[in-house]
Amino acid sequence: MREPLSYEIAHGAALAALEAGRAEGHKVCAVVVNRSGVTKVLLSDDGVGLLGVETARRKAYTSAVSGVPTAKFAAFAASPQMEVAPPHLVDANLLPVAGGVPIVTADGEVIGAIGVGGADDTTDDRIAHQARESVAKIVA
C-alpha cells in the first residue's frame, strides 16, 4: 500500500483547480480529501458561497469513497437499480453530481479525490480533471 495522500499533492491539486477556474473566468472552491473522505485541503476563491464550498466537499467525498468520478456515480445513482436505496439515504454526504474525481496511483489505488464546486457541473468536472492531471506525475 502506498503512502497516503500528502499535503503537498493535495494543496497542489486544489491550487491547480483555482487557477484553472480563474483562467476560464470562474470562481470555484476545490476540496481534496484522503481515501476515507476526510478533508486535507480546502481552497475557496473570493466570492464563492457556502453552496459551492459544500458541494465541492461532498463531490470529493463521494469520489473518494466510491472510487469513481462523480459523473459516473451520478449515472449509477439515477439507474433503476438505485430506486430502492437512493444514495442520500445510504450516506447523506454522497452527492451524485459531476465535479469530483479520484486521485489514483499508477497501479490503480485510490489515495484521495478532488471536488470542485462553484460553477456548473460540467465546468466543475472539467476543472477537477485538469487539477487531477496537474498532480498525476507526482502521484505515479
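The record above closes out task 2.4. Task 2.5 opens with a second protein, given below.
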Amino acid sequence: MFRAILSALILTLAFVGNVSAEQKQKVGNFDIHYVAFGSTFLTPTIAKSYGIKRSSYTGIINVSVLDTNQDGNPPVAVEISGIANNLLDARINLQFREIREADAIYYVAEVPYRDDQEINFKIAIKYQNKLNTQLKFKQKFYVE
C-alpha cells in the first residue's frame, strides 16, 4: 500500500513546479532512491497511519535501497543516519524510521523548514560489508 501511495505521490510531485521528483544514485550493485517533499503532500490519513507530522513547516525525506544484483531488485535493510543543515549552518540530526510494507522497505525522516529555505542533506548508508556510502543532495522547501 505504501509503495502505491509513494508512487502516486511521486507522480503528483513531478507536476508541481517547486518540488523535485524522486531521484536515484547508483552505487555498485545498489540503487539508492530518495525524495524530499513537504509533508502536506501526504493525506492526513497516510500521515497519521505512519506517525508523520503533517505541517506546512515539516519536510519528509524518504530513502530506499535496492539490490540490483538480485532478481527483481529487492529492497535491503540498511543502517542509515544523516544530518540536514540550512544555509546558516543550523544542523539537525535526522531520525530515520524504517517502514516495511509487503516487500518494500523505506526509511523516512522529518525535517523542519521555513518558507523558501534550501536545506542540504548528508545521509550515511551502510549495508553489511557491501555498501558504505554517503548521499548528498539539497532541496528547497516552500510553505503553502
